[in-house]
Amino acid sequence: MTSANFGRIVDDGPLFGACRPGHLGGDLAEWTEILETNGVSGVLCLLSEREASRWGLPGEYGETFDTAHVPIRDRHLPNIERLRSAVEFIERMTADGGRVVLHCNAGLGRTGVVAAGWVAHDRDCSPEAAIDAVETRPWPRAPREAIRDGNATEEELYELLERI
Predict the structure, then answer these.
(1) With DSSP H G I counted as helix, E B as strand and the rest as coil, what are the percentages for the chain, rounded to 5?
(2) Residues 77/142, Cβ–Cβ less than 8 Å
(3) Which of 96, 115, 144, 158 lies 20 to 30 Å from 130 when distance is taken between CA atoms?
(4) Are strands 15-18 and 7-8 parallel, antiparallel or unpaired?
(5) Domains of the chain, with CATH numbers?
(6) What is the pLDDT of residue 3?
């Protein structure tokens, strides 16, 4: 595992997942180098407002990457407006061949939900297929984290992904 928990979401796709800079011990410079080495041009921060303020993100890397911040509460599902906003940012950034990294704190739950939303939308596939795609990667994400923690149901996750 790298200090960024960095990995591609689907084999042939422009989307990657990662943890926030510093979460696994690496510093901002190391995190930035990993992203730049992999051709990433955009970063979508999924930290809550409180977390983002605590770590100064996305401002800390805003001069290096095109960024957006779509705050999602830890271990919860986003509402449909926030998920759509996240997917729209990914679409804008990748339309001309750009690569985007999603990050929350660990790069698992919120990153997994947004990644599954993008897969469902971009690949026009079912929620089940989208979830499976992001859970079975060499660097797997955890879109069911909110369910495991009792903050959402499987049905709510599927409904959210169907609406995207």
Answers:
(1) 45, 10, 45
(2) no
(3) 96
(4) antiparallel
(5) 7-162 (3.90.190.10)
(6) 76
